[in-house]
Amino acid sequence: MPETHFTPESAAWSDWRSQMHHRITTVEQLRDWIHVTDQEEHAIQASAGRYRWSITPYYASLMDPDDPLCPIRQLAVPSLREFESFPSASVDPVGDTVHRKTNRVVHKYPDRIIVLVTGLCPVYCRHCTRKYHTMDAAGTYFETHEGTSWDEDFAYIAAHPEIRDVVLTGGDPLTYGDDRLEAIIARLRQIPHVEIIRIGSRCPVVLPQRITPELCTMLERYHPLWLNTHFNHPQEITPEAAAACDRLLQHGIVVQNQSVLLKGINDDLPTMRRLLTELLKIRVLPYYLYHCDNAVGISHFVTSLETGRELMRGLLGYITGFAVPQYVLTTPLGKIPLWEESLHRDSTGTWVENYEGETMYVNDLLLFDDKGQEQGGK
Ligand SMILES: *Cc1c(COP(=O)(O)O)cnc(C)c1O
Ligand code: SF4
């Protein structure tokens, strides 16, 4: 059997490092799982030196081999649509690079920060908004800086007593081994004003094998600790993913979910309802529904704001109250809840207002559909 043929029957399937080692990065490896279309093959070739891609064998095993529109496939296999030109798209639409205070610290809100731990992800989501991490073309930031000392980052946090909430994110911090991760968390815990630690990781979805009992036992020593993950479609909620979330919960780690509203994947009411209610069955709490940012290479996933607002109207009251996430737009001014009070339309255009009353215009792409027609709902 060739080395690349790593299957659920393989002895090492449940070992996360083996999953990482056997990640799919070539068309030939992908053919072990699906009938790769010509378009997919061209998109993979065009991705070289521009967009990263890799897929864990576990995540590939969830794909429909015959249906190119399979949501798991659209979320992970490069598409030619990533190369369509949208002049308004940006590598950093949410302004993280603007608010970066040290190598790894992004300080945008008064009392909390995100810490960019790594540029590595088990699966590079096609809709990833952090293109400044995962685009090869401009040379990613992390390739040159990931190895540098953390002293400056910890010194910044220690010198800012207003920081009470630290989000470890990336990339995916759980691509680090337990020891390396513990060194970071233990050092954070030495700073008295850091009240809570959050980990942002897609591992429960794309690499549930990573959530080992040993990892959970280690994390449990540093409570209060929360984990935010990223399920986008009910097909991602497998027995393996459910077991990974259960292990975290057994160790007192609350798991919350942040989905992205994606055209053709989850922008219809039945799919979104099923995603949210299935999450409750595995005791994962829906937290945010992000409007898809207009980042380079992902504009084809962007819906109109009205599509998202119409979807929210079909959720509130119809399903369990706490199954309904907050629908937000991430901007350089912070996350803006897309309710009526913060979304304004007048003769000058459409603009949003953040919690401090600061305003900005929203990009036209969020208001018009593919054909340039103004969208009035679905
Ligand atoms: C999302 C985010 C946070 C955390 O925000 P919450 O709304 O508390 O989840 C913190 N800093 C930055 C830069 C963020 O983008
Ligand atoms: S796991 Fe997060 S950072 Fe990594 S590619 Fe997906 S969305 Fe981007």
3D structure, described in words:
The protein is globular and about 55 Å long. With 378 residues, the protein is α/β, with parallel strands linked by helices. The strands form 2 sheets. Strands 1-2-3-4-5-6-7-8-9 form a 9-stranded mixed beta sheet. The protein has 3 domains: 16-83, no CATH class; 105-337, Aldolase class I (TIM Barrel, Alpha-Beta Barrel); 341-378, no CATH class. The chain has helices spanning 16-21, 27-30, 38-47, 57-60, 71-76, 131-134, 141-145, 151-158, 178-189, 203-206, 213-220, 239-250, 269-281, 305-313, and strands at residues 105-106, 112-116, 165-169, 196-200, 225-229, 254-261, 285-291, 326-331, 334-337, 343-346, 349-353, 359-361. The structure holds pyridoxal-5'-phosphate and iron/sulfur cluster. Residues 106, 108-109, 112-114, 167, 335 line the site of pyridoxal-5'-phosphate.
